[in-house]
TrEMBL record, chain A:
The lineage of its organism: Bacteria, Pseudomonadati, Pseudomonadota, Alphaproteobacteria, Rhodobacterales. Belongs to the bacterial solute-binding protein 1 family. One of its GO terms (cellular component) is periplasmic space. It comes from the Bacteria. This is ABC-type glycerol-3-phosphate transport system, substrate-binding protein. Gene3D superfamilies: Periplasmic binding protein-like II. Coiled coil: none annotated. It comes from Epibacterium ulvae.
Automatic annotation (TrEMBL), chain B:
The chain crosses the membrane at residues 12-36, 85-111, 118-146, 158-181, 202-223, 257-278. One of its GO terms (biological process) is transmembrane transport. The keyword Cell membrane applies. This is Carbohydrate ABC transporter membrane protein 2, CUT1 family. Belongs to the binding-protein-dependent transport system permease family. Its main location: membrane. It comes from Epibacterium ulvae.
From TrEMBL, chain C:
This is Carbohydrate ABC transporter membrane protein 1, CUT1 family. Residues 118-329 form the ABC transmembrane type-1 domain. Belongs to the binding-protein-dependent transport system permease family. Pfam families: BPD_transp_1 (PF00528). Keywords: Cell membrane, Membrane, Transmembrane, Transmembrane helix, Transport. The keyword Ligase does not apply. It comes from Epibacterium ulvae. The chain crosses the membrane at residues 7-30, 117-143, 155-177, 203-229, 250-271, 277-298, 310-331.
């Protein structure tokens, strides 16, 4: 969906908000929200802004680089922002530095209507409220698969077989694509594949890495088989590039973020025969595993520790208004909402199917970010054929250990 | 221009004109391509299917009913209110250039006239300062700025840009002042002027060429800055470059790249007018004063 | 100039630099000598929309206490500088002991992130800097000969590569050089190779980045040289003409010596800027094949967990690298300075 449509929808939400919810039942307090620049998050903050009143100010700073700002902004006392939007990865530094507050008492007071699966609890305390979900899943072109006489693949082995069949039939040179850009994207693909193979990143209860094992090698080999079916430029592929290739009809199968579904299924950038033959299905399993090789992500909000209790309460109420059923209904197609009143749209089918397969959530572990960075940087050499899988994984562990020592996770 | 060079043989004239023509083509081709493409839809300008779509507007015709569309401009300027970012940029650039040049002329003049070892030492230290990667500096600012409530405001970014820009400005202006004969201010001082009076009445009138050239680079630095403005400005104070980055989207969220393209093209237009308007001053500025190392 | 007068003249500039560069620089050096305090890890049950899992978490209370005792973290001396992410002395010693010929040792070295980045950074710096100076000089000489009516527009067009913000400039060029893009297709046609992709091979990626670097920096050299050309003494040129000097000899013996100080100035700035090459790498998504020191810093700062200590150490190494690189130029400047001063 284009920004244009969403801002029209969220404008509608403001109108509804101002008529129905002015005040929101808070009398005073200053609410300031830091968050990502998503269309859906814009809608949420617009909903929160409907709470602005004589005694209540609501401001927001939506910036796609919010993660670079959040730690410093919330460490300051008083915190620059009373509320932040966050995800299962972005919340980790906030948790480790004790920058967000437990929400149990606020929920008891204002949030009785929240469903249990919206509550993100750490050690029994609610630290954030989730409102939307996302996951990478498979996009397939039914017409191309039909031409080679195959059903939609359910395992990566079938994806690879289908890709080879399409290539051999001369339909496409590079039938598969995924977000394999060196860095965060490639790291994420390995995380998906490794969890699909049943791998463990760390020795339980410690920060010691355990990726250099059979599951790791198997995951890398699967990734390599997939990249051989991809365009040779695959190490530069981010979501934009994969989406553009899809819309140009150049690929038949893609492992791509669910949040791109709306854009792929709309009438912009692609022709009717491509869109009508696009199916959004569950992420495949791999290596005989029984869970899809993907990770589930949530987006939610948290309240700063270094905000006054009054501001914290006002922020909590305002954010709840931002994720109210009315806002969600007005912006139904902007995201896969975890809020009551959401009507699953066609673009969300893949995320739901992937979640239904008991896919693991992205690990909310304090040192996972370091592992992710190490994976993203060190795996390229293997994919380019410059070193063995074992050597690449050993490099990952060495790089991770250097980082973890410096951050105090290992000695 | 010197008459000597005008009497070159025809072959040299042709060769050098051809070279300039080639350079003009290489320098302007991406821009002309962008200008043309900004009136197309994303599916054409960033076509994976066939680059010629960007020329003919194949998808633009399908999606909008015409081969040209102003949707990018409308989206950036009307819906996303890009003019706010443009105004912020104007403020940031204007003050950064003015303050940089004021500080820089004073400092550069002093460095050029001092001739002592510590002046040279300062120039060296300025170079070390300039070598510091901006991203490290900026992330160091974040916490103190949040603590002291300085974060997010335009003046904070302006002064940071001035400071980051100072080493270059000092070096460049120092070189210009070395080129202005020392006798000028010395004789003023003999006539009873203080150093500052000498600077004000004798040096300022002749320093403009150097200042204009240095100002041009200060302008470009402030105008194009991303590292400082993207991290130190709040959403309502955002300048053009971070706003454009915002149009581009991220891993999970599809952006609207055509808004960014239209914004870039339309942000270049006033520069064109500016350069055309001041071309005499710029060219004569460059003509009158040479940079000397 | 008297000390006091000098001080008042330089004060605003110096104050800005001390506040916003020197103090942060000191803090960066201090942080590069520290690592974070030990984090106390506990296993907790974490729940969310997708069920509950047993995961490691930081025991914030215990950690906060450690943090209060040592706000800067643990003093680590130079250990960050020598770890695998930076100078990697232990890994190099190991690779040297187990070396499999000199080539094998080099490839081991290239496998370490710092040296991989350094290889590209140095190649880039030493190829792009002279090319920028040469191209800038040629453009300046060419533009200088144009009729004055054409000079203004030509100067504007020449500045375009500098005016278009690198963020967008590299994005658009990135699409143009795509295998399906206008430049990519043209190159495939020129080289008669339909599989040619500038993004896939390391060598071509390096060349692309360098071409972009020359393209985007040439205007700077051009403007400075153009300014310098305006003051070439026409009498010297006349004299050279009368002596029967060819055009090339005029340039060689009159123009170039006159521009020499400018060459020093441009090399100084360009060596420094090219050593910090960064935007193009991100813009062209080239990190698979080419990284630079600045890119390493960026990667450290942009992950979910900011590695400020590591970024600080790389920054200090960058500054030292620039200092080493500039030494020859600076020695020359010092001689000039002594020559010119009082």
């Amino acid at each position: 969906m284009s920004i244009q449509k969403v801002s029209m929808i969220s404008a509608a939400a403001i109108l509804m908000g101002t008529t129905a919810f002015a005040g929101c039942g808070i009398s005073n307090g200053n609410v300031s929200i830091l968050g990502n620049e998503f269309a859906a998050i814009q809608a949420v903050t617009d909903g929160a802004k409907a709470c602005a009143d004589d005694g209540v100010t609501v401001e927001s700073n939506l910036n796609k680089d919010y993660r670079e700002l959040q730690v410093a902004a919330l460490t300051a006392n008083p915190a620059q922002y009373s509320a932040v939007t966050t995800t299962n990865a972005a919340i980790v530094p906030l948790l480790s530095d004790n920058l967000i507050r437990p929400l149990d008492d606020l929920i008891a007071k204002h949030g009785q209507h929240l469903s249990k699966n919206q509550l993100i609890t750490v050690d029994g305390k609610v630290m954030a409220i989730a409102f939307m979900a996302n996951a990478q899943h498979l996009f397939v072109r039914d017409d191309i698969l039909e031409k080679v006489g195959l059903d939609a693949p359910e395992t990566y082995e079938e994806v690879i077989a289908a890709g080879k069949a399409i290539k051999d039939a001369g339909l496409m040179d590079h039938p598969f694509a995924t977000t394999s850009q060196t860095g965060w994207n490639l790291g994420e693909e390995f995380v998906n594949m490794y969890l699909g193979h049943g791998g463990q990143f760390f020795k339980s209860g410690t920060a010691e890495p355990t990726v250099n094992n059979e599951a790791g090698v198997a995951a890398l080999n699967t990734l390599k088989a997939l990249t051989e079916l991809s365009n040779p430029d695959y190490l530069t592929f981010d979501s934009n590039a994969v989406q553009a290739s899809w819309e140009a009809g150049e690929i038949a199968m893609a492992h791509l973020w669910g949040s791109r579904g709306t854009g792929i299924l709309d009438d912009e950038g692609s022709s009717e025969d491509i869109v009508s033959n696009t199916s959004l299905i569950a992420s495949p399993t791999v290596g005989g595993g029984d869970i899809p090789a993907s990770t589930l992500w949530w987006d939610g909000f948290a309240i700063a520790s270094n905000a006054s209790d009054e501001d914290a309460e006002a922020s909590f109420v305002a954010m709840l208004n931002g994720i109210s059923t009315e806002v969600v209904k007005a912006n139904n197609d902007a995201a896969v909402w975890l809020v009551e009143g959401y009507e699953p749209a066609p673009a969300s089918a893949g995320v739901f199917a992937t979640a239904a397969g008991k896919t693991k959530p992205y690990p909310m572990i304090p040192f996972m970010g370091l592992m992710h960075t190490a994976l993203g940087d060190e795996l390229t050499d293997f994919l380019q054929g410059k070193e063995t899988a074992e050597q690449a994984l050993a490099d990952v562990e060495a790089s991770y250990i250097a980082a973890a020592k410096e951050k105090g996770f290992l000695n | 221009m010197s008459s000597a060079l005008d009497r070159s043989p025809r072959s040299v004239i042709i060769l050098s004109s051809a070279f300039v023509l080639l350079w003009v083509a290489v320098a302007s081709f991406p821009f002309i391509w962008t200008l043309w493409g900004s009136f197309k839809v994303q599916g054409d300008f960033f076509s994976k299917a066939d680059w010629r779509n960007a020329l003919w507007g194949t998808r633009t015709l399908i999606e909008t009913g015409s081969t040209f569309t102003g949707a990018g401009y409308d989206g950036a300027w009307v819906q996303e209110e890009f003019w706010r970012a443009a105004i912020n940029t104007l403020i940031v650039v204007f003050f950064t250039v003015i303050i940089s040049l004021t500080f820089g002329t004073l400092g550069g003049y002093a460095l050029a006239r001092s001739g002592r070892k510590y002046a040279f030492g300062l120039l060296m230290i300025a170079l070390v300062f300039r070598a510091m990667p901006h991203i490290t500096l900026v992330s160091g600012y974040l916490l103190p700025f949040f603590e002291w409530n300085l974060w997010g405001h335009l003046p904070t970014s302006i002064i940071v840009l001035v400071a980051i820009n100072q080493p270059f400005t000092l070096w460049m202006l120092h070189s210009f002042f070395l080129n202005i004969p020392k006798d000028l201010d010395e004789s003023a001082k003999v006539d009873g002027c203080t150093q500052f009076q000498a600077f004000r009445h004798v040096i300022i009138p002749v320093m403009w060429p150097g200042v204009i050239t240095t100002g041009l680079f200060s302008f470009l630095l402030a105008y194009n800055d991303f590292a400082v403005t993207s991290m130190l400005l709040s959403e309502e104070n955002r300048t053009m470059v971070p706003a454009i980055a915002g149009f581009l989207g991220s891993t999970l969220e599809e952006g609207n790249v055509m808004f960014a393209v239209a914004a870039v093209v339309s942000a270049t237009a006033p520069l064109f007018v500016l350069v055309m308007f001041f071309q005499r001053q710029i060219v004569s500025g460059l003509t009158a004063g040479a940079v000397k190392g | 100039m008297r000390h006091k007068t000098f001080f008042w003249f330089i004060l605003p500039s110096l104050a800005a630099m001390i506040l916003f560069i020197a103090l942060p620089l000191v803090s960066v050096v201090v942080q590069s000598l520290h690592i974070e305090h030990e984090q106390v890890i506990v296993v907790t049950e974490n729940c969310g929309p997708f069920g509950c899992t047993e995961e490691s978490s930081v025991d914030t209370e215990a950690t906060a206490q450690l943090r209060a005792e040592q706000p800067l973290g643990r003093f680590a001396g130079l250990s960050t500088y020598f770890d695998r992410g930076h100078l990697a002395t232990a890994e190099i010693a190991e690779a040297w002991r187990n070396r499999d010929g000199f080539g094998g040792f080099l490839s081991e070295l290239y496998n370490l992130p710092f040296y991989k980045a350094l290889a590209f950074t140095l190649t880039y710096t030493f190829l792009v800097t002279p090319l920028v100076i040469l191209l800038g000089l040629l453009i300046a000489l060419g533009v200088n000969r144009l009729p004055s009516l054409l000079k203004g527009p030509t100067i504007f067009v020449s500045l375009l590569p500098m005016i278009i913000t690198p963020l967008i400039g590299s994005l658009i060029l990135f699409w143009m050089i795509d295998a399906q893009g206008v430049i990519g297709k043209t190159l495939q046609w020129v080289f008669d190779d339909p599989e040619l992709s500038l993004k896939a091979s390391p060598a071509l990626t390096w060349i692309t980045l360098m071409v972009y670097g020359v393209w985007s920096s040439a205007p700077f050299a051009f403007v400075v040289f153009y300014a310098g050309l305006q003051t070439v003494n026409s009498d010297s040129l006349e004299a050279a003409m009368i002596d029967g000097a060819t055009r090339w000899q005029q340039i060689r013996y009159v123009v170039i010596p006159h521009l020499m100080p400018l060459v020093v100035f441009i090399s100084l700035i360009q060596l420094m800027d090219n050593f910090r090459v960064f935007e193009a790498i991100v813009g062209f998504s080239a990190q698979a094949n080419a990284t630079s020191l600045s890119y390493i810093i960026y990667a450290d700062m942009r992950s979910d967990l900011t590695r400020f200590n590591s970024a600080a150490a790389t920054s200090v190494l960058t500054v030292i690298g620039v200092a080493i690189l500039l030494t020859p130029v600076l020695l020359r400047t010092w001689r000039d300075f002594k020559g010119k001063a009082v």
